[in-house]
């Protein structure tokens, strides 16, 4: 990833302005050229001030184009960094904090918040599973929690409908609680 400093961008913009001014001066010099017979009858007369205005306009356009290019480069770099951050695995402690946030909650099947609650517990378990598998200690260190999440995944069989989550409510909450207990015995993994 190439990072351009603002000084490099300003230098590039200044170079473009100087080039445009030199071009304008050359054009002004050319307009003074004549022959013994003058410019032909088919060539319209253009005042030197028009050439200078055109050169100035070209210089302004060059600066605007350079600024747009610099802005696009910065935007592309920011977008790339955001993409890398999205693809970077989450820390186990962060994923575990999300799971812990559900500890004092529960629901009665059929109640208005049950679908949300059970879906959230499932999502937090999936986040923790990914984080544990990506952790530097390796999935072998988290063998028990990963196995518990795998068993839950097999039980749910890919069906994340409200009816199925409510049907397997005790398995979802039990998996959450067993993983919480395991993690409490391994504080170095979340502190």
Number of strands: 0
User: How far from one another are the termini?
Assistant: 33 Å
Largest sheet: none
Apparent shape: elongated
The proportion of residues forming helix, as a percent range, comes to 55-70%
Query: pLDDT under 50 segments (min length 5)?
Result: none
If you had to describe this structure to a student in words, what would you say it looks like?
- Helices cover 69% and strands 0% of the residues.
- It has helices spanning 6-31, 48-87, 92-100, 114-134, 143-156, 162-167, 169-184.
- The radius of gyration is 34 Å and the shape is elongated.
- The chain has seven helices and no strands.
- The chain has 191 residues and is mainly α.
- Helix 1 (6-31) packs antiparallel against helix 2.
- The mean pLDDT is 79.
Short description:
This protein is an all-alpha fold. It has helices spanning 6-31, 48-87, 92-100, 114-134, 143-156, 162-167, 169-184.
Give descriptors for this structure:
191 residues; mainly alpha; 7 helices; 0% strand; elongated
Write the layout of secondary structure elements.
Layout lengths: L5 H26 L16 H40 L4 H9 L13 H21 L8 H14 L5 H6 L1 H16 L7
Helix pairs in contact: 1-2, 3-4, 4-7, 5-7
């Amino acid at each position: 990833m190439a990072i351009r400093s603002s000084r490099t961008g300003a230098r590039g913009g200044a170079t473009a302005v100087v080039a445009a001014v030199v071009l304008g001066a050359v054009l002004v010099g050319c307009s003074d050229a004549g022959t013994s017979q003058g410019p032909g009858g088919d060539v319209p007369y253009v005042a030197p001030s028009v050439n200078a205005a055109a050169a100035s306009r070209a210089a302004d356009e060059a600066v605007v184009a350079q600024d747009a290019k610099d802005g696009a480069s910065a935007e592309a770099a920011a977008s790339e960094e955001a993409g890398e951050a999205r693809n970077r695995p989450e820390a186990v402690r962060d994923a575990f904090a999300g799971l812990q946030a559900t500890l004092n909650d529960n629901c009665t099947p059929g109640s208005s918040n049950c679908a949300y609650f059970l879906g959230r517990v499932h999502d937090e378990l999936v986040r923790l599973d990914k984080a544990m598998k990506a952790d530097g200690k390796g999935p072998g260190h988290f063998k028990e929690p990963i196995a518990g999440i795998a068993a839950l995944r097999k039980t749910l069989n890919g069906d994340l409908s409200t009816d199925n989550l409510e049907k397997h409510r005790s398995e979802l909450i039990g998996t959450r609680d067993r993983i919480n207990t395991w993690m409490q015995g391994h504080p170095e993994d979340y502190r």
